[in-house]
Design brief:
Number of strands: 10
Largest sheet: 6 strands, mixed
Structural class: alpha/beta
Oligomer: single chain
Distance between the termini: 56 Å
Shape: globular
Order of helices and strands: HEHEHEHHEHEEHEEEEHHH
């Protein structure tokens, strides 16, 4: 009697990849106008590879949306452009600079560009009629993200109500929305930072070189190492010095800190974060240090 050939067991990365691809395909089938929010960072690059794999050999059936603060790292924008060119995918850039010029958001000289992304993003979603926006958020990043669902409902003001989320039993998602509302989708919710790096290594993904150890002029502020730049004028008592650093996350360079590190390969980064005691956001994002509920407050207003 013939017997079935033994099947290779799925690795934990195979299982995570399979779940994420299922979510991406479900959203593409269910929503009229999805878009993938793309920062050029490691998580959104993993998202893009998953979307590519979900529909191969066909092209990805939705475009990318990037909110450019005007203070983004040039290495990240260069990586973004390489991915867009290779995949031949549509990219819409929503510029904070342009939003300020158009009066969509107000630059009072005190509010960070990272926070001004919120109004810029919500305007782009409404203007272009997106009904679902994929994000690269993960539950292990931060407390507010830990309690957000995979399908995150946003009302017609783009706001999130953490006390009124829809139940998600097994892999059953409720995608019903009214006119003017949209859904944020987080297919990487169950991934960790370590999973992301293992997947980057397995897939040999092109990521910004600032994730790897390099020499950079930095200065210390509020316990973080920030990039010396015309956008980051030094305050009295601060001094920029060349140090060997790398970034665990990328964003507005005025608020995104780096860590001292000699990790110059994916394997070395995996060894480094395996013993890290702080998440990448807790260690390097100044906008998450304003208060205990900083991220949750921003998400309620419409942040990623």
């Amino acid at each position: 009697m013939p017997t079935a050939a033994p099947q290779a067991a799925l690795t934990h990365l195979d299982a995570l990849e399979s779940e994420s691809i299922h979510i991406i395909r479900e959203v593409a089938a269910e929503f009229e106008r999805p878009v993938l929010m793309f920062s050029g960072g490691k998580d959104s690059i993993v998202m893009l590879r998953l979307a590519e794999r979900a529909f191969a050999p066909a092209k990805i059936p939705f475009g990318l949306l990037q909110v450019d603060t005007g203070f983004d790292f040039p290495e990240v924008l260069a990586t973004r452009d390489r991915w867009v060119e290779r995949l031949g995918i549509e990219l819409h850039v929503a510029s904070v600079e342009q939003a300020i010029a158009d009066g969509i958001v107000i630059d009072d000289g005190k509010t960070s560009r990272n926070r001004l992304q919120i109004g810029t993003l919500l305007h782009a979603i409404e203007e272009r009629g997106y009904t679902a926006a994929f994000g690269g958020g993960r539950r292990d990043e931060e407390k507010a993200r830990a309690k957000e669902r995979i399908y995150s409902h946003r009302d017609d003001f783009g706001q999130w109500d953490p006390k009124n989320q829809r139940p998600e039993l097994w892999s059953l998602y409720n995608g019903r929305i009214h006119e003017g509302e949209h859904m944020r989708i987080f297919p990487l919710s169950n991934w960790t930072e370590l999973d992301i790096w293992q997947y980057i290594g397995r897939e040999q993904l092109d990521i910004p070189e600032i994730y790897y150890s390099h020499q950079r002029a930095v200065f210390e502020r509020d316990g973080m190492l920030l990039t010396a730049s015309e956008h980051n004028p030094l305050r009295p008592g601060e001094e920029a010095r060349e140090r060997t650093v790398r970034f665990r996350t990328v964003g507005d360079l005025t608020l995104t800190g780096c860590v001292e590190s000699d990790a110059s390969t994916v394997d070395e980064i995996i060894d480094e974060i395996s013993v890290a005691r702080l998440t990448e956001r807790g260690a390097t994002r100044g906008d998450d240090r304003f208060s205990e509920a900083a991220m949750e407050d921003r998400k309620k207003e419409g942040y990623f």
